[in-house]
Design brief:
Blueprint (H helix, E strand, L loop, with lengths): L2 H29 L3 H23 L8 H20 L9 H11 L2 H22 L2 H35 L9 E2 H18 L3 E8 L2 H27 L5 E6 L2 E7 L3 H17 L10 E7 L7 H17 L5 E3 L8
Parallel strand pairs: 1-3, 5-6
Antiparallel strand pairs: 2-4, 2-5, 3-4
Helix pairs in contact: 1-2, 1-4, 2-3, 3-4, 3-5, 4-5, 4-6, 5-6, 8-9
The structure holds guanosine-5'-triphosphate.
Length: 332
């Protein structure tokens, strides 16, 4: 199951369970004639239903969707208003499902912040109205619940991040990621040493990427990065591999490619990128640093460092250019 689907499922189930819970409270209050609480619970149930609809509308951008924060801030404020204005001892328990919903739907920090903002006045109201022993039991229960749920979500986020780091493809571009680069480059170096064939690499960096991010936002630069990956896959030949190092830098491993060859392909990449009209951002240039394996290159770090320094040299020389840095000559 993809992350988007998982989030849509958990968010909608969370909102639906909250709707059922709040609706039951509304009905109970109607039965006992607590009309203010009935109206409040009905309003909150409508908001949670709105949350279900919003989850499906924004299913591609669950975590960054600002509407969830607005919906949950509305629900938390409604509950807080009820707590402070109505003298009903059981109402503090309503905070429990609200905490879970905050943490389930919002990014961890926002969820914790909103929950603490709800719990502090709730605790004060409970302390003020109930016998100290009862009040402390309720408050401790609420804070223990908040802590346990936050720790659980922090643990989940941490595991998800590790899984992402371990994955070999970049989630934005579909190119291989940096972790996989070292593994493949080491294998290619060993193969080149064993067979004596040439091996070249290219470090490619988008010029003025920070300025582009300021102008077109993170989303604009991510789209450019994705389009550029597709473009590069179209230019390189089978057997070459492409990696994303960070949000503006690529790395290419080119087996069976001598110095003359890497100069040709690097120049072709530079020219085709500069000539291309990119969606949203228009014209873009890149700086490319390339190198070919020399006799001293038996490990990845030397080759990567030399390619990176060559890229920086290309950039120093005015960007939109290629710089080749030679290793030690291999003598047969
Ligand atoms: N690794 C790699 N090298 C390339 C690529 N394109 C060109 N080169 C290198 O540049 C040299 C000259 O390439 P071209 O100008 O395309 O000439 P070509 O006669 O079509 O080269 P071949 O692809 O070897 O048939 C090649 O022999 C390769 O060493 C590429 O996509 N990947």
């Amino acid at each position: 199951m993809t992350e988007t689907r998982l989030r849509t499922l958990t968010h909608s189930i969370g909102y639906i369970l909250a709707t059922l819970f709040i609706f039951t409270l509304a009905m109970q209050n109607l039965r006992y004639g607590f009309y203010e609480l009935f109206y409040l619970a009905t309003g909150m149930a409508m908001l949670t239903l709105g949350g279900v609809a919003y989850t499906f509308i924004c299913r591609r951008h669950q975590l960054s969707a600002p509407g969830h924060l607005i919906i949950l801030a509305g629900l938390n404020s409604g509950l807080l208003a009820a707590l402070l204005t109505l003298d009903s001892p059981g109402i503090a328990h309503w905070a429990m499902p609200m905490l879970i919903l905050n943490l389930l739907i919002l990014p961890l920090r926002q969820g914790v912040a909103l929950s603490v903002l709800l719990l502090l006045p709730t605790s004060a109201a409970v302390l003020f109205r109930q016998a100290p022993a009862d009040a402390l039991t309720v408050i401790a229960g609420l804070f223990i619940l908040l802590t346990a749920a936050s720790l659980y979500i922090w643990h989940y986020d941490h595991m998800a991040q590790s899984a992402e780091d371990l994955a070999i493809t970049d989630s934005v571009t579909g190119a291989h990621n940096a972790r996989f680069l070292d593994e493949t480059l080491q294998k290619e170096i060993s193969r080149a040493i064993a067979t004596g064939h040439p091996l070249s690499v290219i470090d490619l960096s988008i010029d003025y990427a920070d300025e582009a991010e300021d102008l077109y936002g993170k989303g604009g630069v991510q789209n450019l990065f994705r389009d550029m990956t597709e473009h590069l896959f179209g230019v390189i030949r089978a057997g070459d591999t492409l990696y994303t190092l960070n949000e503006s830098e690529f790395f290419l491993i080119l087996p069976f490619t001598p110095e003359e060859g890497v100069r040709v392909i690097a120049e072709r990449i530079r020219r085709t990128i500069a000539e291309h009209q990119w969606p949203v951002v228009g014209k873009v240039t890149v700086s490319l640093g390339c190198t070919t394996r020399g006799s001293g290159d038996t490990r990845t770090d030397g080759l990567r460092k030399r390619a990176h320094e060559a890229m920086e040299e290309a950039r120093r020389r005015g960007a939109d250019s290629v710089w080749f840095s030679a290793g030690e000559t291999i003598t047969a």
